[in-house]
Design a protein that fits this description.
heterodimer; A: mainly alpha; ABC transporter involved in vitamin B12 uptake, BtuC; globular; B: mainly alpha; 2 strands
Chain lengths: 290, 310
């Protein structure tokens, strides 16, 4: 039981990190990004490529993948999202437009991955030795991923709550219309938040590649999980995403251990359904009003 | 009034011509016509709900797959018409569950729920087949010719467009117009918003399930990965959007060229078609966000205004 809990928490750490990125993109940039999981899987493939072809270990690989992901996110927002945002000032259709545009992007990225990497399951062997934690045997790569998730998550949390720049970002999440009145450049910050979210997705992808097999068409599942976590935690609520992420990791591991590994997505959906029927504003969120 | 009757007669003539076409075409032509009609039905059914409400449903293939898979499971135990009925009932039940859970809430919850629905059902079916029945993949041997499938699909497509036409002339259609323009106003005038949305979603999902069920015999071999292929959701969406989801004939108009394009792409660029289609889709969202029909109307109105000003 304890070992299941620990495995679940370790998995949940990655989920929480991934969901924090999505909540940044949706809460601050107002972009509902359905291609989020594809970016995550792309980063997983990048880590795999760096490790197997160039012998760069994934930790160092993060140093390459993360800045690249940030740049990609910045570019995607500038090229694809900015025109939609500008247009929606008149029509107010940003949500639908961003859903549709990123749905198209999903197929583009997935198609590129299928052409480049094929449709087979991929994995590599990195730090795959067992370590004893409180009587539970956990693979070293999973622990490392958990530690990384904590470091990245804590840094982000600190930046957002303790720095001036973080306050700017949160101000937009709270009230995007009033933010410009106090001298905040909403467009620039939204672009930055989107890029930051992309970076978090990529970091999640690198971590997942360390301990799990993955293939080019798995992105949808990760987007789904991240979305469910974001809804559970309350839209735009970082702390909520963190707790909901850990919770989902534990629930999934419990289901996989005691019921059947094939039913993890069903468990995610059940959890989602319960939240929707019981507390649609999220477990910790005040009503988002959107 | 006379215009309506004239339009109806034209539609019936057109339908008769379409029903007569297979006798003039070879097997390949019938196959092409069949696929096209299937997508006309899918896109029209999708737009029935998503057009006026602007709730983007990403679950087309979930219902399509439910229909196809039901036929695969039941085709040997029940007569054909009963199989279709069962498929429609299952589709309706799933639609009601999804709708009841999400349609009371803001649109984004619905989108999220439908986004993963196909994947969820695919995994559930796979799990059930592997663990309970012990077989993955089924054969469908039904004595149905391609022509018969085509006629059934044609009937469904015509029925869908007819339903769309009837709705636009009914109280429900008026309610929908109000909801589409302003939900708050709609609520204050006493329209049961969630109820209207739920009814429409149920109708749309049931039609999509039927299309899946009718097309199933074309495959002969069926497994979850085939019938729950996300490309179907994607194509339906892009077709409806290209033509214009808010127009009665919009989805049909978008379905025909895009289906042909897709056929050509998958024959010539089998590995790259999803990239090309994705880019095309993004282009449509950018250039004609409300569909070609609405775009033409806008352009026409602008020309007219300029003409009057000059």
């Amino acid at each position: 039981m304890i070992s299941t809990l620990i495995t679940g928490l370790v998995l949940g750490g990655t989920y929480a990190l991934v969901a924090m990125g999505l909540t940044l993109q949706y809460g601050i940039s107002r972009i509902m990004n359905l291609a989020y999981g594809e970016i995550l899987i792309f980063a997983a493939f990048a880590a795999f490529l760096l490790f197997s072809t160039f012998g760069i270990n994934p930790i160092l690989g993060l140093g390459i993948v993360l800045p690249a992901a940030f740049a990609c996110g910045y570019l995607i927002y500038g090229v694809m999202m900015q025109p939609l945002v500008t247009r929606s000032k008149k029509t107010g259709t940003l949500e639908v437009d961003s859903i549709l545009a990123t749905f198209g992007l999903l197929f583009v990225i997935q198609g590129i991955m299928l052409v480049t990497f094929g449709s087979n399951y991929t994995s590599y062997n990195f730090l795959n030795t067992g370590i004893n934690v409180l009587g539970a045997n956990v693979a070293a790569n999973r622990l490392l991923a958990f530690a990384l998730a904590i470091i990245i998550g804590a840094t982000l949390f600190f930046v957002l709550t303790r720095t001036r720049w973080g306050t700017t970002i949160r101000a937009i999440a709270v009230n995007p219309d009033a933010a410009p009145l106090v001298g905040i450049d909403v467009n620039r910050t939204a672009r930055f938040a989107f890029a930051l979210g992309t970076m978090l997705a990529a970091s999640g992808g690198v971590m997942i590649s360390m301990y799990q097999t993955f293939n080019a068409s798995m992105g949808v599942v990760f987007t789904m999980k991240a979305l469910v976590i974001v809804i559970m935690g309350g839209l735009g609520n970082l702390m909520g995403a963190l707790i909901a992420g850990l919770l989902l990791g534990v629930v999934e591991t419990l289901v996989a251990t005691y019921v059947d590994p094939g039913l993890t997505l069903a468990a995610t959906y059940c959890l989602f359904l319960v939240v929707l029927l019981w507390k649609p504003a999220g477990l910790f969120g005040k009503a988002a009003g959107r | 009034m006379t215009r309506t009757i004239l339009g109806l007669m034209l539609a019936i003539l057109g339908l008769a011509a379409l029903a007569w076409m297979p006798t003039q075409l070879g097997a390949y032509g019938v196959g092409l016509l069949l696929g096209m009609t299937g997508y006309v039905a899918l896109a029209s059914a999708w737009a029935l709900f998503s057009g006026p409400t602007r709730y983007v449903s990403l679950a087309t293939v979930a219902f399509f797959g439910i229909g196809a898979y039901t036929v695969a499971v039941l085709s040997e135990t029940l007569p054909y018409w009963a199989v279709l009925l069962v498929a429609a009932v299952i589709g309706l039940a799933v639609a009601l569950i999804v709708g009841l859970a999400t349609l009371r809430l803001a649109g984004v919850y619905f989108v999220i729920f439908t986004f993963g629905l196909a994947e969820l059902i695919r995994q559930l079916v796979t799990w059930y087949e592997v663990n309970v029945t012990g077989t993955l993949g089924r054969y469908i041997f039904l004595p149905i010719t391609a022509e018969q499938i085509y006629w059934q699909l044609l009937a469904v497509a015509a029925g869908t467009i007819a339903i769309g036409w009837l709705i636009s002339r009914s109280r429900l259609g008026l309610a929908l117009k109000v909801i589409g323009d302003d939900e708050t106003v709609a609520g204050h005038t006493g329209i049961n918003i969630a109820g209207v949305k739920l009814a429409l979603f149920a109708v749309s999902a049931t039609i999509i399930t039927l299309v899946g069920a009718i097309q199933a015999p074309r495959w002969t071999y069926v497994e979850p990965a085939i019938v729950f292929n996300p490309t179907i959701s994607f194509l339906t969406l892009i077709m409806a959007l290209l033509g214009g989801a808010n127009r009665l004939w919009g989805p049909a108009l978008g379905a025909i060229p895009l289906f042909l394009l897709f056929e050509w792409l998958s024959a010539n660029f089998p590995n790259h078609y999803s990239i090309i289609l994705g880019l095309l889709f993004i282009a449509i969202v950018f250039v004609v966000p409300r569909g070609v029909l609405a775009g033409i109307e806008d352009g026409w109105a602008r020309l007219k205004r300029r003409g009057e000003a000059a």
